[in-house]
């Protein structure tokens, strides 16, 4: 029989086992008999011995469980066990040979993958129309890599009409050679569902909300990401597992407490009082004294006892014996082990229009009222509600924890933590009040965006700017001016410029330009290039297979040509566009910050044209990599520049947050394991000179302005460290220079 959610049962037991108790409000997982529950509680509280209390506790839990869950749900439900050849016949394969093998643990599929296509894989489908996983949180399968090389595997679950983006859930994982483990994808955002619908707004994931309909699983797709070798692996025991808990929407709200935490749950480190915050502060102080950082670090975090180069004013890059390194101002080899957003700016969550989500929000004129603010940055729920009021639970908790000097304590503690955690870099979006203390190296960041956009460009986070418009160069100069304190600062490793620009395919910049109106400067430049090459419109028409009457008519049209016929010209202009973007930024940085490093634009989408242009002008090419390994990360053939990882992370659902990120871990122990594996893959990749984790704090439980509420922090929103991940980072910090040097 499924009992109450574990956290509720434990809460009731703890309450009953206390002598002086107020009558608790036990928020059950479903509808129960409230009056009967109160009578039981009144009788239980009269019990005077521990034995009576324990027995009474069990009686209460049994009563509530029976009222909450009428039907038993198994812990797992097998979908495919490959016990017969018929199940193999239903497998659809792409560049993969499929066969069935029997072993001591049951039947499995043996998959032998080629590497002739980018995404070799298989599709599994039910015998009937759908698999129904409505009672379960996730779908899982067992995998074993029986080959000699690791690979990145994707698991995608589709509803009807799923395309990998919509009506789909996809997770990626790296499977090491010889490794056997479980791979899973969540069908529900959290382990909780509601007994009747309750819409919760402004969060990427929340209790009771689902990315897909778990009752209508049409197919499961397994695929390898762009393999460069053949691979062999087995899969078996495809199943639903982890029954979801059913919550009662009538007793769910409010669900965020005074500290910004989920009310209906318990976990290690959850804060229940201001006194607990202060206790955690003192415990961490002792931990930081006991763990003061790797002895191999010099003042910059460089390799103190490693090979030396001549000192210089700034960080630089060098390649030694086929391996790229940063070199710090003391001339020591340096590998950037860092963390993004060491800042007090990112803890705000929207309270306006959602006031009933929160318990006991402070009055505006109370001391804790200083942490309200107004936001104009939003996507999703809040996009049409700008401006809207937010509350920053993170800074409120810092105030509770440190008192009036909380800002100073935040900055000082951040530097202590970074070094203690085996790190040496304050990465993007960290606060100037922190990094300008010159205790930890840092990276600077600015955007070049205050200029006309390319009107025909496809929009993602932003729309590409017109790099040929003179205002673009002005925007670069103005962006540099926002980093004035970092110009000439030896503690500044270098400059990121822009973030996660959408480049499309290799021809996209040219196609977007052709889709622009005639007055777009970029289109005029493209038209001039074509006139110089073809001289007459007829010559262009002959090559492109078009029928433009005149050059003027061509400029007025937004029609795009056949890509194959116009490919040479499209690629040439896309290359010119990308090189103008990176070249303009490089030139202006060279004027304002000579000899300091240009770190690129933090690719998350890229094209070969864009990456080659970045390799030409950037000192280091940056990528945001949300995956489990970067062992195979490299630049296009012929390009040789160092690479830095601007963002990566992993998250889990066992600390009171609702979204495990796009790169999920099973729990905090697995999260720590993922961290170590990722860092090992980066440290042993001769091109990679650093990794920057996103981010310092976990995102707000109820979501930031765009709804993200990922468990991504090294500390939570009560400023409590995630010890498992910190232990992993410390291990990496202590071994990273010996490990890096071993690949020389």
UniProtKB/TrEMBL annotation:
Protein name stated in the entry: Beta-agarase
Gene3D superfamilies, per the entry: Galactose-binding lectin, Glycosidases
Family matches, as SUPFAM superfamilies: (Trans)glycosidases
Organism of origin: Aporhodopirellula rubra
């Amino acid at each position: 029989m499924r009992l109450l959610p574990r956290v509720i049962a434990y809460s009731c037991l703890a309450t009953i086992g206390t002598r002086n108790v107020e009558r608790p409000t036990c928020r059950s997982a479903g509808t129960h008999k409230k009056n009967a529950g109160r009578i039981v509680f009144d009788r239980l509280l009269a019990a005077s011995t521990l034995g009576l209390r324990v027995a009474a506790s069990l009686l209460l839990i049994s009563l509530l469980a029976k009222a909450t869950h009428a039907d038993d749900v198994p812990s797992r439900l097998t979908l495919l066990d490959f016990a017969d050849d018929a199940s193999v016949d239903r497998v659809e394969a792409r560049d993969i040979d499929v066969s069935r093998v029997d072993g001591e643990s049951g039947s499995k599929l043996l998959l032998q993958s080629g590497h002739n296509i980018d995404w070799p894989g298989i599709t599994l489908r039910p015998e009937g129309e759908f698999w129904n996983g409505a009672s379960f949180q996730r779908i899982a399968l067992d995998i074993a890599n029986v080959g000699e090389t690791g690979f990145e595997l994707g698991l995608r679950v589709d509803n009807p009409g799923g395309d990998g983006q919509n009506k789909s859930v996809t997770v990626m994982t790296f499977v090491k050679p010889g490794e056997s483990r479980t791979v899973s994808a969540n069908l529900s955002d959290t382990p909780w569902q509601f007994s009747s619908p309750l819409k919760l707004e402004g969060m990427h994931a929340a209790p009771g909300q689902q990315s897909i309909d778990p009752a209508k699983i049409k197919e499961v797709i397994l695929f390898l990401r762009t393999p460069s070798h053949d691979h062999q692996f087995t899969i078996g025991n495809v199943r639903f597992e982890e029954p979801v808990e059913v919550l009662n929407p009538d007793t769910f709200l409010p669900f965020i407490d005074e500290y910004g935490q989920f009310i209906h749950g318990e976990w290690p480190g959850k804060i229940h009082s201001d006194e607990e915050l202060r206790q955690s502060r003192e415990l961490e102080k002792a931990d930081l004294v006991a763990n003061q950082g790797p002895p191999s670090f010099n003042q910059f975090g460089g390799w103190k006892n490693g090979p030396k180069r001549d000192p210089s004013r700034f960080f630089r890059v060098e390649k030694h014996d086929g391996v790229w390194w940063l070199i710090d101002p003391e001339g020591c080899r340096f590998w950037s082990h860092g963390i993004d957003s060491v800042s007090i700016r990112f803890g705000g969550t929207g309270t306006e229009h959602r006031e009933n989500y929160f318990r006991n929000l402070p009055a505006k004129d109370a001391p804790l009222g200083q942490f309200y603010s107004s936001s104009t940055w939003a996507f999703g729920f809040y996009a049409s509600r700008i401006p809207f009021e937010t509350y920053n639970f993170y800074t409120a908790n810092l105030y509770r924890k440190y008192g009036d000097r909380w800002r100073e304590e935040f900055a000082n503690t951040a530097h202590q933590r970074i070094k203690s955690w085996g790190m040496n870099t304050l990465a993007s979006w960290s606060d100037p009040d922190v990094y300008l203390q010159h205790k930890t190296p840092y990276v600077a960041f600015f955007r070049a965006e205050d200029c006309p956009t390319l009107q025909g460009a496809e929009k993602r986070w932003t729309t590409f700017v017109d790099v040929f418009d003179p205002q673009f160069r002005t925007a670069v100069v103005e962006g540099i001016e926002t980093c004035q304190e970092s110009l000439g600062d030896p503690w500044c490793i270098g400059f990121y410029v822009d973030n996660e620009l959408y480049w499309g395919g290799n021809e996209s910049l040219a196609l977007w330009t052709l889709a622009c109106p005639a007055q777009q400067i970029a289109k005029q430049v493209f038209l001039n290039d074509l006139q110089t090459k073809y001289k007459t419109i007829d010559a262009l028409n002959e090559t492109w297979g078009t029928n433009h009457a005149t050059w003027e008519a061509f400029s007025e049209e937004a029609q795009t040509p056949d890509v194959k016929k116009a490919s040479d010209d499209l690629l040439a202009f896309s290359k010119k566009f990308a090189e103008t973007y990176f070249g303009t930024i490089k030139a202006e940085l060279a004027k304002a910050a000579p000899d300091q490093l240009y770190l690129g634009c933090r690719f998350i989408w890229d094209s070969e044209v864009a990456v080659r242009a970045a390799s030409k002008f950037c000192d280091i090419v940056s990528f945001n990599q949300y995956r489990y390994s970067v062992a195979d990360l490299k630049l296009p053939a012929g390009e040789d520049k160092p690479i830095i990882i601007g963002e990566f992370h992993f998250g889990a659902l066992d600390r009171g947050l609702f979204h495990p990120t796009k790169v999920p871990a099973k729990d905090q122990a697995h999260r720590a394991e993922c961290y170590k594996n990722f860092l090992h893959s980066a440290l042993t990749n001769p091109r990679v000179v650093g990794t920057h984790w996103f981010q310092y704090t976990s995102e707000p439980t109820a979501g930031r302005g765009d709804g993200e509420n990922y468990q991504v922090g090294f500390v939570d929103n009560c400023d409590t460290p995630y010890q498992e991940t910190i232990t992993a980072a410390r291990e990496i910090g202590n071994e990273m220079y010996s490990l890096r040097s071993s690949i020389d």
